[in-house]
Amino acid sequence: MDLMTASHSGKPSTTSPWPRSPCRSAPGCAQPEFGEPAPTRQATELATAALLGILREMLGPKWEPLSLCFTHRAPASLDAHRAVLGTRLQFGHEFTGLVFYATELDVANTAPDPPLRPYADQLRKALGAPPAATVTGQVTQLVEMLLLVGRCSTHQVAWTLGVTQRTLHRQLAAEGPSFSAIVHGTREALAERYLAADRYSQTEVSELLGFTALSAFSRWFRHRFGVSPTEWRTAARRPAGG
After folding, report:
1. What is the residue-averaged pLDDT of the chain?
2. What is the Cα–Cα distance from 110 to 59, expressed in whole angstroms?
3. Is the CATH code 3.40.50.300 the one for domain 135-237?
4. From residue 205, how far is each of 106, 139, 193, 220 by CA, in Å?
5. Where are the domains of the chain?
6. DSSP H or E run through 199
């Protein structure tokens, strides 16, 4: 069984922790997925270390990613991190995860357990094919992309999906969330990601989220999170228990 088969879906997807890359020889990334935003950097690092351990179980104990990235800043001492995670660490990155060549998805599991293969096959069949894409999921992906270019609107999303705005609203209503709720939810998730990375100024974060002015972003952020972007970023940088 190779890594791609082990992911059960048979191909990279947005819900799978396996890399997504347009070129099989180009670097992809594996990112830990959290049901809720990770409350501490320790939780993020533990999840990433667990993901690294899973990949080493399948690719061999000496396997190393091209890089191992975290959005938060580096700690004062890297001794413990290097002992567990290796030396290819990057902090203040735009995402948290492991970067490695997409061709490694086809590498066979180095430690297969033949007696468990029938059970793995049964589990894969029981899981079935990945669920069909929902309108909500499609809109969420489009919103994330369109925010970056300042063109996030129901008109643009509907045009991209090939439907009228009225049809778009009706389809979303049938599934639950409104277009406004999707935009706010997407902005919240992206705001946490960007503010956690030191590489972005607040003005840049504001622009990435589609706001025309920093003041508008600051008002929106305080309304959604109860604190200012500066206060949130300061708290995120503060060591646990500090």
Report:
1. 78
2. 6
3. no
4. 37, 21, 10, 13
5. 3-127, 135-237
6. none
